[in-house]
Specification:
5-stranded antiparallel sheet, SH3 type barrels, globular, about 20% helix, alpha+beta
Amino acid sequence: MAMKSTPRQNARFVVCIRNDGYPEALELRKLYRVVPDPKAARVGSVRVIDESGEDYLYPLGFFAAVKLPAGVTRALVAA
């Protein structure tokens, strides 16, 4: 029997590689959780939960996708 994936298991993270104009909201080299937003992706943006604790749109080029082990993803989502 195949296990169904949950939103927690499908959580995506990116690492900040640029923060031009947003130094208070984005820390370089920090992981940020991605909030799915297909419309944002179509216009070259990504929605992340930033330092304010809220989700905002930023240019996709400010981040690099990271592939984390499942255990690490679970730990980050649970925190």
